[in-house]
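Exercise 3.2. Students should predict the tertiary structure of the chain below and write it as structure tokens, then compare their answer with the key that follows.

Predict this chain's 3D structure.
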Amino acid sequence: MSMNRLVSPSTLPRDLTAGLVVFLVALPLCLGIALASNAPLFSGLLAGIVGGIVVGVLSQSHTSVSGPAAGLTVIVAAQVAALGSFETFLLAVMIGGLIQIGLGLVRAGSLSAFFPSSVIKGLLAAIGVILILKQIPHVLGHDTDPEGEMSFSQPDHENTLTEIYAMLSDLHPGAAVIGLLSTTLLIVWGKIPLLKKSFIPAPLAVVLMGIGLTRSFKHWVSGWEIEASHMVQVPVSKSLGEFVGFLRMPDFSQWSNPAVYTAGLTIAIVASLETLLNLEAVDKLDPKQRSSPSSRELVAQGLGNVLVGLIGGIPVTSVIVRSSVNINAGGQTKLATIVHGLLLLVSVMFLPAWLNLIPLSCLAAILLVTGLKLASPALMRQMWDEGHYQFAPFVLTVVSIVLTDLLIGVAIGLAISLTFILSSNLRRPLRSIVERHLGGEVLHIELANQVSFLNRAALNQVFNSIPHGGHILLDALNTVYIDPDILSMIREFKEQTAPIRGVRVSLRGFRDRYKLCDEIQYVDYSTRELQGLLTSEQVLQILREGNERFRTGRRLTRDFGRQMQATAVGQHPLAVVLSCIDSRTPSELIFDLGLGDIFSIRIAGNITSPKVLGSLEYGCAVAGAKLIVVIGHTQCGAVTAAVNLSGSPETAEQATGCQHLESIIHEIQLSIGPQDCQPLEPRPEQEQADFINTVARRNVALSVELILQQSRTINQLVREGQLAVVGAMYDVVTGELDFFPNQPAATLSAVAR
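Answer key:
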């Protein structure tokens, strides 16, 4: 990226300010994370410099800030101890960086998607717990081991808790006071809005307070003086050559040591995972919602880790704390993170004496509070609320990492997550629905997206549960893979077992390579035979059940292509539906019907007329329908217009501009009594809606009555018991159909007489 594109006059002031703020936050964190990692404090500052300048230049993320991360402290401490020297560890960091570059080049940016969120959150929470346990001694001033050497977070070879007991014999009152006050200040700072939003970040305030108390104890409180062993110890250089001499090179003689490559792989995986997760989170925080290329970020982080390995730094990743500070401070481009890296370089080269005034208990307090944020009670509650499928892998990952190490803990967490997935898959591998089609009940089995040998037992149980003469539909529309064992099992059941037991098997959605052809053997549309067997009451029940399926989202599986072919030679509808033209009342949908099942007559206001009656008569007397349903609906526009015009001197054409609407309005107005002919406007809104729905209901009842009165053909069919006419109101909000009471065939036959 050219300097012209990097530096913009419109964003430069905010980027410079954000870079300064991030530097103030990053400085104590770089020192503290190196402290927690049992690495030289200088290595943490080098990681911050490389993460800011080198990764900042190479990355294409606008707001992400890289540097040493709390999430890697456990790995760094463990690997330094396991490899025997910091120089050997640097070689592992380089190898980890090379692996990251390779991952980026093969576009493995989606790596994080393969880790369950419960395990990832467990990993971060476990790191938080370890930070808390490891930093408690240092907050209280226990900064040396029995031999007097620095041992900030070296594994104690027993368990994580033993260091807490050891500190009781070696407490420093001055350092303890500073550590406890620092912890208190950090917690309080985050809860007071004025302080939280101030220009001074909490870690900087803690460091300044620690330096001030150190100077005060030296002059005013005897016995509380802070010695060098309880202070930051950054090498002081008097020249550039001396500064370069502080850099540490990897031990290349260990290139054949297998443990180095294991450590490098561990660093690469965890650093990449943390980077990708943080990058996703940072992009969501970005006010401009810019997207960062994840694979490019892996390459940038890999190059950064190769460099820090060469010069003596600890690993770098994208860090959510610094990135969020950058965004909140107004950072607009990557210039902010580069500025923060340059400021770290200046401080290391020219201000090391000032850095060495910082008490270690201050840094330990910063890390302790960081650990509290990673392993917060709120996170525990959230995981508990998400159910045992999330909570069990989460808590077992935390416990395993704390009691063993990171890799074993993550492996245990992944194993537990996989166990839950397999258990769920074994218990509920298939979706089973009993569908009541016109031709009878069908057991509809929806196969999962991936059907493996693990599903064999569940599918075999389904096959054995089908009664003699039953019907099963195996639906593979949403399936992308079926194990050959399962395919053999399906073929065997279809060709051998099912015919012996009188079971019909229908197939749907199977791909050509499975060598199982789609075959539907059940009837899901109206045929001449079904039409002749059903009564008016049975047709009405079919419509009721269809509406229930429509409302609850359990619509039947239909093969419309097959229905189209079957009905091309003739139609045998079960009912004729007279409904309004309203776009929200399509009869086939609200009754969950297929092609050829009904005749649908739609006219504004669902009114009758000679043409409507002719259509009704044809559907019943010629096509053989057993039921006429007149459907009105709530919020009907035609009824609303009729009500509004009932007390108005205007005609329908004058009010609406519609030349031929008058006859429809007139028919609907027959359902409005003289006492109701009042303007709607003065009435409350709910009262207006209720009155319109009442008129719509009356209009349906009137249409039913007029059909019976005006059509001798329909009247005769009703008297003979071959037909019923019913009315219903459809609620456009709930999708529910309310059939008018006392209108089955027997009652309507009496009305017709």
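Discussion points: The first strand starts at residue 65 and ends at 67. Residues 104 and 253 are 28 Å apart (CA to CA).
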